[in-house]
Amino acid sequence: MPIIIRRETPADIEAIHRIEAAAFKGEAHAILVNNLRADDALLLSHVAVLNGAIAGHAAYTLLTITDGDRVFQLPGLGPIAVDPPVQGRGIGSALVRAGLKAMRELGYGLLFLVGSPRYYPRFGFQPAQPLGFSSDYVEPGGPHEHFMVALLGERAPVHVRGHVRFHPAFHEAEAD
User: Fold this and answer.
1) How far from chain centre, in Å, is Cα 145?
2) Structural domains in the chain?
3) Which of 53, 113, 126, 135 could make an SS bond with 77 (beta carbons 3.0 to 4.6 A apart)?
């Protein structure tokens, strides 16, 4: 059966929580999504439906990029999760592709994430630091390949650089 990607509805919240907790082997990411939702910080929240059941989830929030006096807001992907029993069936890929398309349609030129440098480059993500971006997720002089950005076609703003900050709920989740 095909994978259907659609926006989350209130009826999906319990399944999203279960999938985030199962995929990340703990409650932190599930609580993070709930906190982002409660703060009205979800720019977009997609679910993947397989055989009539929610099988995956992807959240998108606005990030703040500061470069001196200039401040930009651009989207970030995460968390993204697939129910462990159905991983490896293309659900995560379908979610990422749908999100890239949605961000282009919303007029954004960049999409950030913190994730696997082995997985996300197939979708056009590349390390963000060499392009002039820093983040609290990158220690000075430390590995940076997990902090990535996708340039979304012709809309990629070449003048944007600076320090990328995710929504405060991400830092609260790390502290727990």
Assistant:
1) 16
2) 4-175 (3.40.630.30)
3) 113
